Amino acid sequence: MIHLISIANPRLAQAFIDYMAMQNIVIEMRAEPQEKFFDLWLHDENKFDQVQQELKLFMQDPLNSRYQAASWQTGHIDKKFGYRNYLTVDYLKKQSGPLTIIVFFLSILIYIWILISGNDAVMAYLAWPSSTQYTEIWRIFTPALLHFSLMHILFNLIWWWYLGSQVERQLGTGKLFVIAIVSALFSNWGQSLFSGSAFGGLSA
After folding, report:
1. Per-residue pLDDT tens digits for 120-150
2. Calpha distance 87→57 (Å, rounded)
3. Per DSSP, what are the bridge partners of residue 75?
4. Cβ(22)–Cβ(29) under 8 Å?
5. Among the CATH numbers 3.20.20.60, 1.20.1540.10, 3.20.20.70, 3.40.50.150, which is that of 96-195?
6. Which of 34, 42, 47 is nearest to 16 (CA)?
7. CA 169 to mean position of chain CA atoms
8. What's the rounded Cα separation, in Å, for the pair 55 and 158?
9. Angle, CA of 171, 37 and 88, to the nearest 5°
10. Looking at residue 87, what is its pLDDT?
11. What is the pLDDT of residues 155-167, one digit of tens each?
């Protein structure tokens, strides 16, 4: 078996399991100790690529009626789950890792700073370096932490949490750090060629 994802909401997890069962793909849900989150495991590893594509669509729109319809057809719509409060520090630590959490909250703090002080004031310290600022090494990486609208930061943080936590849990904090630094370096450099210093975001 191969691990697919960890989901906090067991009802949503079951809906995805039921939807894939309609395609004759078996996925098993396992609860971690104290049911802090729920791991989904794929039985047939040959179906991994197909399931990953379906999982990506599911994460974009988990409340789509097709998933509930699958639960109705499989008879799991009335299945009872014990829900807990997952928005706790303990859960966040178990679901991800220190680097995922640090980048997540650092991005939020910088976004609040932008709301209070304005884009120009924050970018004066964190934007991609101009020709006279290359000694300020942090500027090569900090544009990844800049977000300029609520939708911008929400979208990027959802994907950072989803992808970053998976990488950090499976490969470790060190490898996620290297991936994040290298990705930020090259993506920021590429953006600077077209946008100057007027850009930002974890997806840059």
Report:
1. 889 888 988 887 887 888 988 999 999 888 8
2. 24
3. none
4. no
5. 1.20.1540.10
6. 42
7. 13
8. 15
9. 100
10. 45
11. 888 888 888 888 8
